[in-house]
Design brief:
Largest sheet: 6 strands, parallel
CATH architecture of the largest domain: 3-Layer(aba) Sandwich
CATH topology of the largest domain: Rossmann fold
Strand order of the largest sheet: 1-4-3-2-5-6
Number of helices: 11
Distance between the termini: 40 Å
Helix content: 25-40%
Radius of gyration: 19 Å
Structural class: alpha/beta
Number of strands: 9
Length: 279
């Protein structure tokens, strides 16, 4: 595996690959890698001949300076983890100067999908996501990009962006990877104290109970209310909890075959998200 930190070195590398007829898969990340990220890499098996993992903590998608400052980082550990897989050709880890040159003034905005759920309480977040993903897709010249369903709103937004901008890349969605107790894997989990980690399991537990109640005929409003109260009693501050269409992200009913339950909730200053399909 080769570590590349500049746009020019990456361009030289992928130009050679394309010249040789290789197909390229990319896994964009913000680092602090875990098993969930490795699952994204493995999902590219048999689909590409070259794989790139990007690590870049993107400053323009954070609307909270402390959240950006405290976001877990560890490039050496990330590189060692990827090296062990034997499946990654390049770790691309640019710094901010490589991504945003002086005077950078462009943003990519996906209207509608950026203003609901996480977008409602994180203004500008998805503009930052769309902008950096566009840049990474162009820089890596990937044929396929793998994204996890844990960040389902992000997945929908990126699909829309790629379609609207005619970007020559396919999106590979990968199911959420969970701990044995059900908690969705996330780099933010590393910031949880032992006590908070015990509390955190209430998040997937409450979602599963809510889905079961809906399937048994409970109304959406009533079951969401019970779920929200359970999370609050477990120590969470609930930012949103909603049933949405998995195709449009608009509010929907339990009878919708694409329906998914979406939640964002915080323990202290650590914001966790999750989603689960009803079907």
């Amino acid at each position: 595996m080769k570590l590349i930190t500049t746009r020019q070195d990456l361009t030289d590398c992928v130009t050679g690959w394309h010249r040789n007829g290789d197909t390229i898969g990319v896994v964009p990340t913000m680092g602090s890698l875990h098993t969930g990220h490795l699952t994204l890499v493995k999902a590219l098996d048999g689909k590409v001949t070259r794989r790139i993992v990007t690590v870049f903590v993107n400053p323009i998608q954070f609307n909270n300076a402390d959240d950006f400052r405290l976001y877990p980082r560890g490039l050496e550990a990330d590189a060692a983890l990827l090296e062990k897989t034997g499946n990654v050709d390049v770790l691309y880890a640019p710094d901010a100067s490589q991504m945003y040159a002086p005077g950078f003034a462009t943003r990519v905005m996906v209207s509608g999908l950026d203003s609901m759920l996480c977008g409602a309480d994180r203004p500008g977040h998805f503009d930052g996501v769309a902008t950096v993903v566009t840049k990474l897709l162009l820089q890596t010249r990937a044929n396929i990009a793998a994204f996890g369903e844990k960040d389902f709103q992000q997945l929908c937004l990126i699909r829309r962006m790629i379609q609207d901008l005619d970007l020559p890349v396919s999106v590979l969605p990968v199911p959420t990877v969970r701990e044995a107790d059900g908690l969705a894997l996330s780099s933010r989990n590393k910031r949880l104290s032992p006590e908070q980690r015990q509390q955190a399991v209430a998040l997937p537990t409450a979602l599963k109970a809510c889905i079961t109640a809906m399937k048994q005929g409970g109304t959406v409003e009533a079951t969401l209310g019970v779920c929200s109260n359970a999370l609050k009693q477990a120590g969470f501050v609930v930012h949103y909890l909603d049933l949405r269409s998995g195709s449009t992200l608009q509010p929907t009913q339990a009878s919708d075959p694409t329906a998914r339950l979406f939640v964002a909730a915080s323990l202290g200053d650590i914001r966790l998200i999750d989603n689960m399909p009803l079907a």
